[in-house]
UniProtKB/TrEMBL annotation:
The keyword Hydrolase does not apply. Keywords: Membrane, Transmembrane, Transmembrane helix. It comes from Amanita muscaria (strain Koide BX008). InterPro entries: Adenylate-forming_domain (IPR052979). PANTHER family: TRANSMEMBRANE PROTEIN (PTHR33927:SF1). The keyword Membrane applies. This is Non-ribosomal peptide synthetase. The chain crosses the membrane at residues 99-122, 178-200, 206-231, 243-264, 284-301. It comes from the Eukaryota.
Length: 509
């Protein structure tokens, strides 16, 4: 199938009806009504077809004879202000916030029952509620646990289950961070309550327990503050330094808190640690599993060889050994413990001998890759799954990306013939180099991709027009978007308004 540019999109005349030409390239027919879902072509670019020429040049496909046929592109109606606010609210109140609120409210209800005396169990086992929440927060951010969840969902529910169910599964997997944040906040609340109980009965607790309890409370508070969106997105190094290293220190103080707390005899006011007594407590096992899940990704950290290609001042392409399944992201660093950055992985498949990362040159870390290209780099061999990993759930889909977002998008289209790539950028081949262009030539050609060149094709397109036509003509079930914050918001709003299921970029990892 070959989708190309729309006249209305290229010229930005979204409010007018345009006459569109197309290339007579057949598409696969679906099981649905052929009158609505099967056509003899996709619509093409504007009358002079600059993007069509570019797509054919990259893929080596000979241009088909151009045939004209009238087709009226519906003039989009501008949504009313109230409608626009409602769309934005729905996008803001996403699954992340729903899971966060659900988790926090559940814990608040439990705490209120405890404070009222209706439920007495948490008063004797407050530490278990503290550590249980913190453990859940750690697990939801663990690479191994996440990969396992994605594997289960992709294996059991792919394609045959109702679309709404698959969309719901994708949304929950993408927004597991809501449970992470909710449990961390709730654990902090239970810890404050626990410290309150300790301070009103100081004779029942060892002084060191009071001290480590305060240290743990402060550590968790610092981790929560460092993870606030503004800090995380604008001051990455501050977020990483405090969230990771203060978190590790908090875990260490938690062990001291648990062991001393369970070993203290208030009758003799002395420490009498016994292994049998300590391991019999819930708090010990919570702390143990917290430690295991914190350490799991770090035991897979390796210094690996890397080849650096710099096709342009804007982009660095890193080449690593071994192939990867689609939908994974890698964390890399110049050091073993410090300043890890996440990038989407491009690979032809698990049997390939290599995979690539596309890094936009924007900050100190990526600028360092240009100024001082490394021969080796640190990475976690255990990769974490992104929302693209759920692409196998869907029969057909559209992968939209802008600029360096191709790093997170391309693998899905390389490894599945059911996904169509819509990539908006500038001088694709010159900017991103022969490696990325070669993969597109080899696997996609002009049949499964549209490369919109903002310089050759008259600037920024009407992206929603392109998405709508691609979605309808490709008979897609879902759209995945990787773009910057502004582009992501605009496309997500447009898809929401058009009733197109879409998942956009997150900035919470």
């Amino acid at each position: 199938m070959s989708l190309q540019n729309v006249d209305a999109a290229e010229k930005g005349l979204a409010g007018r009806q345009q006459r569109v030409s197309f290339l007579p390239i057949p598409i696969a027919r679906s099981n649905s009504d052929s009158s609505t879902n099967s056509f003899d072509s996709f619509y093409t670019a504007a009358t002079h077809l600059p993007s069509a020429r570019n797509s054919r040049r990259m893929s080596g496909v000979r241009p088909a004879k151009r045939v004209s046929r009238k087709f009226q592109v519906p003039a989009p109606k501008a949504p009313a202000p109230n409608s626009r606010r409602w769309i934005r609210f729905q996008l803001w109140f996403d699954t992340y916030r729903k899971l966060y609120i659900l988790t926090v409210v559940f814990n608040i209800i439990a705490l209120l029952f405890t404070l009222s005396g209706t439920w007495t169990y948490p008063q004797q086992h407050t530490g278990a509620f503290v550590l249980g929440n913190i453990l859940a927060a750690i697990v939801c951010r663990n690479e191994l646990f996440g990969r396992l969840l994605y594997l289960i969902v992709n294996t059991l529910f792919a394609k045959w289950t109702p679309l709404k169910f698959r969309l719901a599964c994708t949304s929950v997997l993408q927004h597991l961070g809501g449970i992470h944040s909710g449990c961390a906040t709730s654990g902090f609340g239970w810890l404050v309550y626990n410290m309150f109980l300790i301070f009103i009965n100081p004779k029942q607790h060892y002084e060191a327990v009071l001290a480590t309890g305060i240290v743990t409370t402060v550590a968790i508070a610092v981790c929560i503050i460092a993870a606030l969106p503004w800090v995380r997105n604008t001051h990455h190094n501050i977020f990483e330094r405090h969230h990771r290293f203060v978190g590790w220190f908090g875990l260490l103080s938690t062990w001291v808190f648990v062991i001393l707390g369970e070993s203290y005899d208030p009758d003799t006011q002395s420490i009498r640690p016994t292994v049998s007594k300590v391991i019999a407590q819930q708090e010990f096992w919570f702390a143990l599993f917290m430690t295991v899940f914190v350490l799991t990704p770090w035991v897979t950290v390796r210094k690996v060889p890397v080849e650096v290609d710099i096709p342009s001042p804007k982009v660095v392409v890193l080449r690593f050994g071994r192939g990867m399944q689609q939908g994974l992201l890698a964390r890399i660093s110049r050091t073993a413990l410090w300043e890890y950055h996440a990038f989407g992985i491009i690979s032809e498949g698990k049997d390939s001998n290599e995979h690539f990362l596309v890094c936009g040159v924007q900050g100190d870390f990526t600028q360092g890759l240009v100024n001082n290209p490394p021969t080796h780099i640190w990475t976690r061999e255990l990769k974490f799954a992104g929302v693209s990993n759920t692409s196998t759930l869907f029969k057909r889909g559209i992968r939209v990306c802008t600029g360096t977002g191709i790093g997170a998008a391309l693998s899905t289209c390389l490894q599945s013939p059911d996904w169509y790539l819509l990539w908006i950028g500038s001088n694709h081949e010159k900017t991103f180099g022969p490696i990325i262009s070669g993969l597109i030539h080899k696997h996609l050609g002009s049949e499964r991709c549209l490369l919109w060149d903002s310089k050759e094709d008259g600037g920024r397109p009407d992206v929603m027009q392109l998405i709508k036509i691609a979605y309808n003509r490709w008979n897609a079930e879902v759209v995945f978007i990787t773009s910057n914050m502004q582009g992501n918001q605009e496309m997500m709003e447009g898809c929401k308004e058009a009733g197109i299921p879409a998942f956009g970029t997150l900035w919470d990892f």
